[in-house]
Amino acid sequence: PSQPIVKLSAVEGFILAAAAYLHDAGMVCSDEEKMRILTDPEWQDWIVDGGGAKRWSLIQQLNGQDAKENLEKSFAANLQVRHLISEFVRARHHLRSRNLIETTSGALARVDFEDPMLRRTIADVCAGHGFVTSQLLDEDLFPQERDIRGEKTNVRFLATLFRLGDLLDMDSDRACPLLLSAASPLPAESLAHWTQYRCITHRATTPDRIEITAECRSSEEHRILNDWCKW
After folding, report:
1. Do 169 and 136 form a contact (C-beta atoms < 8 A)?
2. How far apart are CA 150 and CA 173, in angstroms?
3. How far apart are CA 145 and CA 205, in angstroms?
4. Are 98 and 30 in contact (CB under 8 A)?
5. Distance between CA 228 and CA 169 in Å, rounded?
6. Which of 10, 113, 182, 216 is packed most tightly, with the most Cβ within 10 A?
7. What contacts 113, CB < 8 A, 6 or more positions away?
8. Distance, CA of 212 to CA of 142 (rounded, Å)
9. Euclidean distance between CA atoms 231 and 167, whole angstroms
10. What is each CA distance from 99 to 22, 90, 112, 117, 212, in whole angstroms?
11. CA–CA separation, 186 vs 183, rounded Å?
């Protein structure tokens, strides 16, 4: 074809739109849920032997005996716990989004039209944006042909399209400065996810290649953008 255009069925187009709307819903975490996370076995493993172990140890030092008499230390320790929970949630938010869609579709304006197959497909496409590439070959989660509401649907192709679309959504207005101000203070890891878009000095997306040039102001921004290139 003269242009890189793929014809999607109406159901396929709807699934992509719903996934775009809901794929980061798992980033939202109430205070009640944060309390449950602190007793979750997966959290315990993560702060003992996983990626959160070093920072958890530092928090414990801040929360020493004298912290009760030092409001600044106590505040700093509590803030760092929240930051660590945010990092824990971010790493799993694609799975949390899937679970949210599967269990609370009624609260999401019934985006699935109460169709269990449509619900599962939207949920799996959302989860797919955080999977490693090899997981997209799972025939149960991402079949290349599924009948949904009378139309053929290529779930694996939709998951691939959505991953590309999510990665290429890198305009500077993605990180709203007002929301950043409201959410601050943020840990360095999360802050870099907001500020990385402002570092981009050149972008070009064509059928032949994708180009990106950035001038990073911190090692975290560089690491995140380098990870993006690997994806």
Report:
1. no
2. 38
3. 29
4. no
5. 11
6. 216
7. 149
8. 30
9. 8
10. 11, 14, 14, 15, 34
11. 7
Interior/surface letters 116-155, b for 16+ CB within 10 angstroms, e for the rest = eebbbbbbbbbbbbbbeeeebeeeebbeeebebeeeebbb
Task: Tell me the C-alpha distance between 92 and 14, whole Å.
Answer: 25
Assign 24 to helix, strand or coil.
coil
Residue pair 122/129 in contact by the 8 Å Cβ criterion: no
Spatial contact of 128 and 19, defined as CB atoms under 8 Å apart: no
Instruction: Please give the backbone phi and psi of residue 172, each rounded to the nearest 5 degrees, phi first.
Output: -65, -25
**Exposure of 18 by Cβ count < 10 A (0-12 exposed, 13-18 middle, 19+ buried)?**
buried
| Strand, coil or helix: 175 | coil
Tell me which residue of 86, 176, 93 sits closest to 129, measured CA to CA: 93
d(CA 191, CA 155): 33
Number of Cβ within a 10 Å radius of residue 88: 22
pLDDT tens digits for the chain (231 residues)?
677 788 899 999 999 999 999 998 888 888 888 888 888 999 999 988 888 888 888 888 777 655 455 666 676 778 778 888 888 888 889 999 999 888 887 777 688 888 999 999 999 999 999 998 899 999 999 999 999 999 999 999 999 999 998 888 877 565 555 555 555 556 556 666 667 778 888 988 888 888 989 898 888 888 888 888 888
